[in-house]
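Need residues for this backbone.
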């Protein structure tokens, strides 16, 4: 393939993940073109054609790699969680590079098996963890790297919503094979961020509750991690929070950082806005900036406002394109996904049995 020829992307699934996140971001990435959308739903087929004129429609995923040869250069798996492992296995076996939406699998063992398969076949494999490119997370990483907080002692992260009514669907199903519930949904994000910032966890404690009438799986969950570095992370994911707490509250030996509100990129994508074209992307107004200080309450205006760096979801697929073109590393590896899943599994065990679970550092690091 000529270096200037775009890489053809086949997107499996056109629900929330596929239509709101993957399709727009792929389409906005230089060097990638959304070639095929796989969905058997006529309504979603129509939506895909309207949003992406000229896109091919397939009804089965195997159409992307069976036959005379792969018809795409990259497969993106944005279908329900239970399909991630079998679809990724089939694509990797066919030698087609793969991006899988989080969670990669139900267990760390399955994630490691996919990693081994990718290595045996010499095929690219990455996991979509877009929250690494949230505006607040990028800002926090910079503050830590610059030493503004001193030695980090406690990290509090909240991904909370107020959704007292059930929405239904597989994400709220209690069937184990569906891999539903907030622990694996939003928990995949907050755990991944904590591990990126502070390294492997060696101890996990969790409380997972089912709060809403008729709910089948966890909708209000707390996870406490002790990292090998000594940092403690307290992570909250909830659909039942009537008063939202700070997205981040990070306490260090020199100062603390408190940040409210969610990164604006998801809301922008849901509204049909797209990155590129010279327009600002991922920026938030000054009144949403976090505050840095010591001995003062941000709620009463204490601390110094810290300009929030722009969020940058497009950076993920730009890195994927670069890796496929130049042979560089994946922006998020399956090894890292396995590390995150080891923590989620330990959290599930902790909540179920009412115990604290120890994880060997080499297991949680999965390297």
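Answer:
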């Amino acid at each position: 393939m000529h270096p200037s020829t775009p890489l053809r992307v086949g997107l499996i699934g056109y629900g929330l993940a596929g239509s709101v996140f993957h399709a727009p971001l792929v389409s906005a990435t230089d060097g990638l073109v959304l070639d095929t959308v796989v969905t058997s739903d006529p309504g979603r087929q129509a939506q895909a054609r309207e949003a992406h004129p000229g896109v091919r429609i397939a009804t089965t995923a195997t159409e992307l790699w069976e036959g005379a040869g792969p018809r795409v250069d990259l497969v993106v798996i944005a279908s329900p969680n239970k399909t991630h492992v079998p679809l990724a296995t089939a694509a990797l076996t066919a030698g087609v590079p793969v991006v899988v939406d989080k969670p990669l699998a139900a267990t760390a063992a399955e994630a490691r098996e996919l990693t081994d398969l990718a290595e045996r076949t010499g095929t690219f494999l990455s996991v979509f963890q877009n929250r690494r490119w949230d505006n607040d997370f990028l800002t926090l990483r910079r503050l830590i790297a610059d030493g503004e907080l001193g030695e980090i002692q406690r990290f509090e992260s909240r991904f909370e919503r107020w959704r007292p009514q059930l929405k239904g669907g597989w994400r709220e199903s209690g069937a184990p094979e569906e891999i539903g519930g907030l622990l694996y949904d939003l928990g995949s994000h907050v755990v991944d961020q904590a591990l990126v910032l502070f390294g492997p966890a060696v101890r996990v404690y969790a409380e997972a509750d089912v709060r809403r009438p008729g709910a089948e799986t966890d909708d209000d969950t707390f996870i406490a991690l002790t990292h090998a570095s000594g940092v403690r992370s307290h992570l909250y994911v909830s659909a039942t929070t009537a008063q939202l707490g700070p997205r981040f509250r990070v306490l260090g030996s020199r100062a603390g950082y408190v940040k409210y509100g969610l990164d604006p990129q998801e809301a922008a994508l849901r509204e049909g806005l797209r990155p590129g074209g010279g327009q600002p992307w991922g920026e938030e107004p000054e009144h949403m900036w976090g505050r840095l200080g010591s001995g003062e309450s941000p709620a009463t205006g204490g601390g110094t406002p810290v300009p929030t760096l722009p969020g940058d979801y497009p950076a993920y697929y730009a890195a994927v394109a670069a890796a496929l073109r130049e042979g560089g590393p994946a922006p998020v590896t399956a090894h890292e996904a396995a590390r995150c899943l080891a923590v989620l599994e330990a959290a599930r065990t902790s909540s179920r049995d009412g115990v604290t679970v120890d994880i060997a550092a080499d297991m949680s690091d999965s390297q």
